[in-house]
Design a protein that fits this description.
Blueprint lengths: L1 H41 L3 H6 L1 E8 L9 H14 E13 L5 E12 L4 E13 L2 E11 L17
Length: 160
């Protein structure tokens, strides 16, 4: 009887540790995906950049309407990639939902337009675990610069 009780006690004690390890692995997976996404955008790889979004994603760019279709998101990114010399972002915080199915990522971005105009700001992404893969379901960003100092034309200085 004592052996069964000991085994049960050990199993119960291991459950929180197992959950914590899984959450840590998911957080790492989200962080890694965000790093790869930034690299893809910096390399101006449009297909790979757009592939990080969930099929039902919503993108909320500054000074523009929400983009709710893959085509609209692709068009947004094509315009951005065509107009920037450099773009990158870095997560500063990743918060995992207790369910392990969602994560909120916040961080900072920097970009340089082809004309030399620079922008920097912050972003927030909501990632969702779908069929074992992390995808961005909601993406929003905005500049830290004043409106006059940022984008000279609506939508020019956008995204991470």
């Amino acid at each position: 009887m004592k052996t069964k009780q000991f085994i049960l006690t050990v199993c119960v004690a291991l459950v929180p540790m197992t959950i914590a390890l899984a959450a840590g692995a998911d957080e790492k997976a989200v962080r890694d995906a965000d790093v790869e996404w930034s690299k893809a955008a910096g390399a101006k790889d449009l297909d790979k950049t757009v592939s990080f979004y969930a099929d039902d994603a919503i993108v909320l760019p500054p000074n523009e309407s929400a983009k709710t279709t893959k085509d609209a998101i692709r068009t947004l990114w094509k315009g951005l990639i065509d107009s920037v010399a450099d773009v990158s972002w870095k997560a500063t915080r990743v918060e995992m939902a207790k369910s392990g199915e969602m994560a909120c990522v916040t961080g900072t971005y920097e970009l340089t337009m082809k004309d030399g105009t620079k922008d920097r700001g912050k972003y927030c992404e909501v990632w969702e675990k779908k069929a074992g893969t992390w995808k961005c379901g909601t993406d929003i960003w905005n500049s830290d610069l004043t409106a006059a100092a940022s984008s000279p034309t609506p939508g020019a200085a956008e995204k991470k």
